[in-house]
Write a structure and sequence with these properties.
Strand content: 15-25%
Helix content: 25-40%
Number of strands: 17
CATH architecture of the largest domain: Alpha-Beta Complex
Number of domains: 2
Shape: globular
CATH topology of the largest domain: Naphthalene 1,2-dioxygenase Alpha Subunit, Chain A, domain 1
Oligomer: single chain
Distance between the termini: 30 Å
Largest sheet: 7 strands, antiparallel
Length: 421
C-alpha cells in the first residue's frame, strides 16, 4: 500500500465520521445528553476541531496582555499554532504562527516581545504586520518577498477581549456581540489593566464535558463551598428557578448600577453569546473566600464596589466574571478527544501593586479551588461515559437548561457548518 492509498483511507474514514456525526445529531432527542462517541471518539473529535474550532470565533486572550508594540501571545488551536501581536500602529493582528519558507513555527513562547518576527530556522524576518522583510540572497533575484507575508487569521478585539477565527473564507458575523462587549466592558478600561496571575490545568475530559459542567450549577451545593460563599447559583434573571427574593435583590442592585451608568440588562445573541450582570450574595462584594475586596484599586471608572459579577459567555470556549476590583477570564482549548486545557487569568488595575494593593493567593483562592473541583467532576464524568454501560441520560429542564442550550448550539452549528461545504 502506497502513501496515497493511506491518504485516501484516512479521508474516507473522516468523511464517514462527519456523516455519522451529522446523522446522530439530527436524530438525538433534545432532552438527552450526547451519544458516547461525541465524548471519546478521535474521529468525531477531528470533526469538532474542523467544524467548530477552525470555523467559529475562538477567545484567545486579553488586549492588556499586549500593552505595547511588538508584544505577542501564542495559542495552539488544534494543530494550528496562532500568533497574536500588536503592530507599530497599535493594532492587534493574528497570524498563523508558521514561517512561509518551510513551515517552521516562528514563536515558541506563550508570551513575549519582539522588534520583528524572526524564524529561528533560517532567519526569514517579518515585520509586526506580517510582511516579509528578509529572506537572504540565497533565494535568488527572481524571488518576490511581497508574495510571502505571513498568513493572516481573522481577528476581532472588543471590550478588551481578543477573538480569532481560522475560517479560510468569510468569518461568522460577530459584530452584534462585539458591540455589546464594547458597551458593557467600557467601565473596566481593560487596556489599562494587567494579568496579575494565571493558571493552566489539563483535564482528562472532552472539551464539551468541561463546558457542560460550567453551564449548570446543579452540582454546586455538593461540590463548590468556596464559590457559593459569594455566588448566587441562579444563572441569570431569566433562570426558571429564580425566587421572588432573588429578583428583588437584583432590582435593588440594578437601581444602584443605573446611578453609576453601569450596563446590566441581560443581552443574548442567540445561544452562543450572552452578557448579564448579576448581584452576588448580600454582604459580599467579590468572589473571595470572605466576600471582601481582593484589590484596593477598583477597575476603570468604577466607584461602586458592589457591581456583582458581570457574566460573559462565549461559545465554544469561554466564560468570564467581571467584578469591581478584578476580573476572572477563562479559556478552554481542546487537546484531544479526552484532554482539554483550561486557562484562568485574574486581571487587576495596571497600577495595582502586588503585596500592597492585592495578595495573589487571596485573589485566586476561590477559583483555584473551584477549578480543581470541576476538574475532578469532568474527569469522573469522562470515566463513566467511557464505560459500556453509558447511554444518554435526561437533562433537567430547570437546573440544566444552560447545558441544553449549549448542546443545542453545538448541534446546530456543527450541522450548519457541514451543510455549508
Amino acid at each position: 500500500m502506497n502513501s496515497q492509498d493511506l491518504i485516501n483511507i484516512t479521508q474516507a474514514d473522516f468523511s464517514h465520521a462527519r456523516s455519522e456525526m451529522y446523522r446522530l445529531l439530527a436524530a438525538r432527542p433534545s432532552n438527552l445528553s450526547l451519544p458516547q462517541p461525541f465524548y471519546n471518539d478521535p474521529q468525531l473529535f477531528k470533526v469538532d476541531m474542523q467544524e467548530i474550532f477552525e470555523k467559529e470565533w475562538i477567545f484567545v486572550g486579553m488586549s492588556c496582555e499586549l500593552p505595547g508594540k511588538g508584544d505577542y501571545i501564542t495559542v495552539d488551536i488544534g494543530q494550528n499554532p496562532v500568533l497574536i501581536v500588536r503592530d507599530a500602529q497599535g493594532k492587534i493582528n493574528a497570524f498563523h504562527n508558521v514561517c512561509r519558507h518551510r513551515g517552521s513555527k516562528l514563536c515558541d513562547s506563550k508570551q513575549g516581545k519582539v522588534a520583528n518576527l524572526v524564524c529561528p530556522y533560517h532567519q526569514w524576518t517579518y515585520d509586526l504586520s506580517g510582511n516579509l522583510l528578509f529572506a537572504g540572497t540565497e533565494m535568488g533575484e527572481q524571488f518576490e518577498m511581497r508574495e510571502y507575508g505571513l498568513k493572516t487569521a481573522h481577528c476581532q478585539v472588543a471590550g478588551g477581549f481578543i477573538f480569532v477565527c481560522l475560517a479560510s473564507g468569510e468569518a461568522p458575523d460577530i459584530a452584534p456581540f462585539t458591540a455589546t462587549l464594547d458597551e458593557y466592558m467600557e467601565p473596566y478600561d481593560i487596556e489599562n489593566c494587567k494579568v496579575a496571575v494565571q493558571s493552566t490545568i489539563e483535564e482528562t475530559a472532552n472539551w464539551k464535558l468541561v463546558l457542560e459542567n460550567n453551564r449548570e450549577c446543579y452540582h454546586c451545593n455538593a461540590s463548590h463551598p468556596e464559590l457559593l460563599g459569594s455566588l448566587l447559583e441562579w444563572d441569570d434573571t431569566n433562570d426558571p428557578r429564580a425566587t421572588p427574593e432573588f429578583l428583588a435583590h437584583c432590582a435593588a442592585q440594578a437601581t444602584a448600577w443605573d446611578k453609576e451608568k453601569i450596563p446590566h440588562q441581560h443581552v443574548a445573541h442567540g445561544l452562543q453569546n450572552r452578557v448579564v450582570r448579576m448581584p452576588l450574595k448580600e454582604g459580599t462584594t467579590v468572589m473571595t473566600a470572605d466576600g471582601k475586596a481582593a484589590c484596593n484599586r477598583l477597575m476603570g471608572r468604577i466607584k461602586n464596589p458592589e457591581l456583582g459579577s458581570m457574566r460573559i459567555l462565549h461559545l465554544p470556549n469561554s466564560w468570564n466574571h467581571m467584578q469591581s476590583d478584578h476580573c476572572v477570564v477563562f479559556q478552554v482549548i481542546p487537546i484531544s478527544a479526552q484532554k482539554t486545557l483550561v486557562t484562568t487569568k485574574w486581571l487587576v488595575h495596571k497600577d495595582a501593586v502586588e503585596g500592597v494593593d492585592y495578595d495573589i493567593e487571596r485573589l485566586r483562592a476561590v477559583w483555584d479551588a473551584t477549578n480543581q473541583q470541576d476538574k475532578i467532576l469532568a474527569e469522573r464524568n469522562q470515566a463513566g461515559i467511557n464505560s459500556i454501560a453509558y447511554q444518554p441520560g435526561p437533562y433537567s429542564e430547570t437546573f440544566e437548561f444552560g447545558v441544553i442550550n449549549f448542546i443545542q448550539w453545538y448541534s446546530q452549528t456543527v450541522r450548519a457548518n457541514i451543510d455549508a461545504k
